[in-house]
Amino acid sequence: MNVLLIGSGGREHALALKISESDLLEKLYIIPGNPGTAQFGENINLDVKNHSIIVEFCKETKIDLVVIGPEQPLVDGLGDVLRKNNILVFGPDAKAAEIEAQKTFAKYIMKSVGVPTANYIEFNTSMYQRAIDYIKQKKYPCVIKANGLAAGKGVVICNNSVEAREALHSFFIDKIFGISGEKILIEEFLTGEEASVFAITDGINFVCLPPSQDYKRIGENDTGKNTGGMGAYAPATMVTDEVLEYVSAKIIEPTLRALGTEGRKFIGCLYVGLILTDEGPKVIEFNCRFGDPETQAVLPLLKGDFLKLLYSASDGNLDKDAISYETGCAVCVVSASKGYPESYQVGYEINGLENIPQNVIVFHAGTKNIAGKVVTNGGRVLGVTSVSQDNDLSAAKKLAYYAMAKIHFDNIYYRKDISNKAIKA
Ligand code: AMP
Ligand code: GLY
Known about the structure:
Elements: E1 2-7, H1 10-20, E2 27-32, E3 42-43, H2 51-60, E4 65-68, H3 71-75, H4 78-84, E5 89-90, H5 94-101, H6 103-113, E6 120-124, H7 128-136, E7 142-146, E8 155-158, H8 161-173, E9 183-188, E10 193-201, E11 206-208, E12 213-214, E13 217-219, E14 223-226, E15 231-234, H9 241-261, E16 268-277, E17 280-287, H10 294-298, E18 303-304, H11 306-314, E19 323-324, E20 329-337, E21 360-364, E22 367-370, E23 373-376, E24 380-388, H12 393-404, E25 412-413, H13 420-424
Parallel strand pairs: 1-2, 1-4, 2-3, 4-5
Antiparallel strand pairs: 6-9, 7-8, 7-9, 10-11, 10-16, 12-15, 13-14, 15-20, 16-17, 18-19, 20-24, 20-25, 21-24, 22-23
Helix pairs in contact: 5-6, 6-9, 7-8
Adenosine monophosphate binds at residues 118, 143, 145, 152, 155, 187-190, 194, 216, 226, 273, 275, 284-285.
């Protein structure tokens, strides 16, 4: 098979690695890719927003499957255009991707089939004063969310009405998220451990990958701003088999069914963001794609043929046995550019990538090659994943940080506590 992978982050490096392990693979192309994905295929510098150029490329290179990594091209309808041209795609059409792109749509779907989620109320820009009145009598903490896409940064947890008022001002007046923040949800704050579950689906049947836990805040002990994700580990053992069965039966199955009924059949990876409350697991978000950096912790644990799994889902005939998880755990620590998730500098040389110990993979995210040197090129720069085959999470954590200490670039920042919650538990 010739496969085209879309994207350029750490997630795409992990996808490229797993796809490249398949005997079914003839050639992998990545648009645009990064120095990490280039180890497994050919990076092609084309504009992902230009759908007709992508279609043309697929035809010329006889692509058998396109795997779309990030949400933006899915939401922009790249999947729709490819399918119209009879090209097989892993990733939903735009209408199904709204499960991520419009939080109010996700709530509507959940409500229609009774999927447990946080209570909420919607406001738009023209309701600014009503929102201000509402937050005066609200219970705290509460959560204010941009309705649209915001790169994982559109959620503010407010501890009191002053913070809530500031958040409302930044969404509605300063418009920090542009049109994504013109509609907001004010949501009940849920207490409990967070977990991410990936369901690979052909639209009807699905298989869950090992659950993971993301560390979303920039600071240690979950302080500071939300980010795209500063690290993750898998499997997240608080998602027991029993919890996963509940999530499958009460959340994933009804959600896929509701999307199908609405004429929005979802093919790809449905990311289920959960909080395990005292009342049971509740959904805090759906994404229409693999999570980043959870993918970098989950995929190294899978045995079998990952490409076969993706192909079978895209072809409408999910082969649940294509992959399996038997044993092992993984910790992924993200190194970022100091200043992220706000402003930061790029262009610093990355050293030490040749000193990486065994059982560690360094996934590239915001990096680029300049004259034979790898330099920083984004907020999240690398994801360092260690694997312990005998399920020793402490050993995996130690190994990830040992490897991270070998890597240097100016203004490097990473959290030191990735996986601590599970180790303490
Ligand atoms: P989201 O982008 O919706 O996943 O939200 C980002 C982060 O905000 C989550 O990972 C949680 O840590 C937190 N969060 C979101 N919604 C809630 C909620 N209803 N209750 C508590 N924390 C939340
Ligand atoms: N790590 C969270 C996300 O991918 O949305």
